[in-house]
Amino acid sequence: MKYCKKCLMPDTRPGITFMEDGVCAPCHNYEKQKTVDWNSRLEELKSLCDQYRGCNGKSYDCAIAVSGGKDSHFQVYVIKEIMKMNPVLLSTGCTDWTRTGQQNIQNIAEAFSCDVISIQPNPRVAKIMAKKAFVEIGSPTWYLDALIYAFPYRMAAQLGLKLLVYGENVNYTYGGKYNVETPSAKFQPLNDVVKPVWDKWLEDGQITEQELASAKQMTLEEYDASGLNAVYLSYFVPWDTHHNYEVARRFGFRHMEHEYRREGTLENYNQIDSIGYLLNQYLKYPKFGHASATEMASRWIRAGLATREEMIPQVKLYDKRLDQGIVDAFMQYTGMSAREFWTTMDKWYNPQLFYQDRDGVWHEKFEVGVGITDQKQNPLF
Ligand SMILES: [Zn+2]
User: Fold this and answer.
1) In angstroms, what is the span from residue 194 Cα to ligand 1's centroid?
2) If you average pLDDT over each of 75-84, 89-98, 216-225, which comes out highest?
3) Is residue 252 a part of any domain in this protein?
4) Cα–Cα distance between 150 and 170 in angstroms, integer?
5) In angstroms, what is the span from residue 24 Cα to ligand 1's centroid?
6) Domain boundaries, position 155
7) Pairing of strands 163-166, 87-92
8) Which residues surround ligand 1, an ion (CB under 5 A)?
9) Does the pLDDT at position 141 exceed 60?
10) pLDDT tens for residues 143-154?
């Protein structure tokens, strides 16, 4: 296990690459943003919007895939306020909205005066899939993630729209299968965030192929046939999480501090639509040795908002904390017992990063910011 010299990303993160200088690709890509000619990128965005503005008469010019979060607010701000487009917002609902999340999706529609077309996930499938995906692949939000990459493409095509705007190109920021800098989000549904394990879910006959159809991403053939042009806004304008948050706040986006203080995160403004979503985030910790705090700390370090030294103790403290409220809610939702939950959790610990003592408790073999230290002493003796 090797850590980036600049931020706190370890090389255990799937898809991440490190350069010869010991610095990760996300850090390099962030620095590269400073040398991009953003004026000419903005011109590219303007001419792209010119191509589609008014293409449907008085109806929608384009669609924006939104969650209602800070990045969504920023996307709508750029496309509607600056580019003067007439977008429709396409959103995938949660099964366990927070009050703040609901206020934010309501706010985005009101603040920017937009229609929202939202899909409410099939509650029976969502419930069955939460447990199945936790037990089988350690990703309880697999079904909801699949919808995020499927619904906006399909709905935009069904509405006859040709331009669909997404936010950040995760594969470019973090590395992955399609890690080139490109405006096109054509390959996004294939980016491996959602593992292509469809047949596994049908095996025991609880769910049919038809019930999963709405979560199935467009094939490249379907995409080409639809004439859709899906793009990443992060190609056209500088992309900085904290800046997006500051802009979003100016339009009424709310953080979650007054509703719920989550354990295990450094902030109160990222992925706050659902509390349960954090279980998925947390599972990166047993699997890869880093979770939400590492991710946010690394973003802050890159943006110059904090130093690596300041963030190491924070990451040590927060990444390993799984919010008790999430555990309670997940067990109640899926009907799992505590024993079943924690036994399943055991499956996802990577023995190269953790060891289990004789009572089953897991301990880190690594030190944040340093790597494997392999001090295997039982802390009890
Ligand atoms: Zn880095």
Assistant:
1) 24
2) 75-84
3) no
4) 16
5) 4
6) 38-235
7) unpaired
8) 4, 6-7, 9, 24, 27
9) yes
10) 999 999 999 999
